[in-house]
Specification:
300 residues, Immunoglobulin-like, 6-stranded mixed sheet, 4-stranded antiparallel sheet
Length: 300
């Protein structure tokens, strides 16, 4: 009887047992996972005059163990912890620029953080979410915040004339509102960075104001150039960039019309209206005509 039994008859049950054992191990591994962080909310820039709001959003997938803890780190230092299984459930750690407020639940943990007064400081904030044992699976995400007061509005261009003539010198100014660090300004003429002629050099760099009560500074930069194009318009751009990490830029674009015939700036500047200019033209024409007639009679 034993001679007629095939070897696979002995191996099949044992192999099936191994498969079931491996399947159970795989199922246990799948179940023991951490929550998924769906979104980490950290502003790219933070104003040191007010607290920064941070939020960590997470979700429990089907089969995940219960939430064990949510921890916030500033750089490598833990600053806040939420553990729903303990009382009290939240704990703040005393560090420089610590947490001023924190609210957490099973799906979200948000905190408010005081920022240092050192502008252009770059800070990393990490949210770490872990599930209950025995494995205590952990996931985390990190984002960076730069301490800066960014420009709230586009730069302002002033001194713009209604139109210009070929060969005319144009003087404009570009200025920004208070910010920190202060912005550096670059002018572009028809898409190219300005190129100051030596005879026109005057403040060919960005000027910065003194600091206000909050340490913020405004920037400005004049532009003087001579109209040489024969096109009907000149494209101008004022670009203000703060040297943060990453840099922050705002810009303003405008078009300057180039007149085909001499404009009446000399008359409009004196306050003359079109009718008085017409009368002056008629009188001048009559005077020229009279002088010409007198000259012709005297030649006879």
């Amino acid at each position: 009887m034993l001679a007629n039994v095939k070897i696979q008859d002995f191996l099949l049950p044992s192999l099936l047992g191994v498969d079931r054992f491996l399947l159970m191990r795989v199922q246990k591994t799948v179940i023991a996972t951490a929550h998924n962080i769906t979104y980490l909310e950290v502003p790219q820039y933070g104003d040191p005059r007010r607290d920064a709001y941070l939020a960590c959003h997470y979700v429990k997938e089907r089969g995940d163990p219960a939430l064990h803890s949510v921890k916030w780190y500033r750089d490598n230092n833990e600053i806040f912890r939420y553990m729903p299984g303990q009382q009290p459930s939240t704990r703040t750690f005393n560090t420089t620029g610590g947490v001023t407020r924190g609210t957490c639940d099973e799906n979200k943990c948000s905190i408010s953080v005081a920022l240092p007064k050192r502008f252009n400081t770059r800070i990393s904030f990490t949210c770490e979410v872990s599930t209950e044992g025995p494995r205590f699976e952990v996931v985390n995400q990190t984002k960076y915040l730069t301490v800066a007061v960014t420009l709230k509005e586009d730069p302002v261009i002033s001194g713009l004339p209604g139109s210009v003539q070929v060969g005319e010198d144009v003087l404009l100014n570009c200025s920004t509102g208070p910010a920190m660090p202060p912005a550096n300004i670059i002018w572009y003429i028809d898409g190219r960075p300005e190129k100051m002629e030596q005879w026109m050099s005057m403040n060919d760099h960005t000027e910065v104001s003194t600091a206000d009560d909050y340490g913020l500074r405004s920037s400005w930069r004049p532009l003087r150039f001579r109209v040489t194009t024969v096109r009907a318009a000149i494209s101008l751009t004022c670009e203000a960039t703060q040297p943060t990490r990453p840099s922050f830029t705002r810009s303003t674009n405008l078009t300057l019309a180039v007149a085909r015939s001499p404009h009446l700036s000399m008359f409009t500047a004196s306050g003359s209206n079109p009718s008085s200019f017409t009368a002056a033209t008629v009188v001048a024409s009559m005077l020229v005509h009279t002088l010409s007639k007198y000259s012709a009679l005297s030649d006879k």
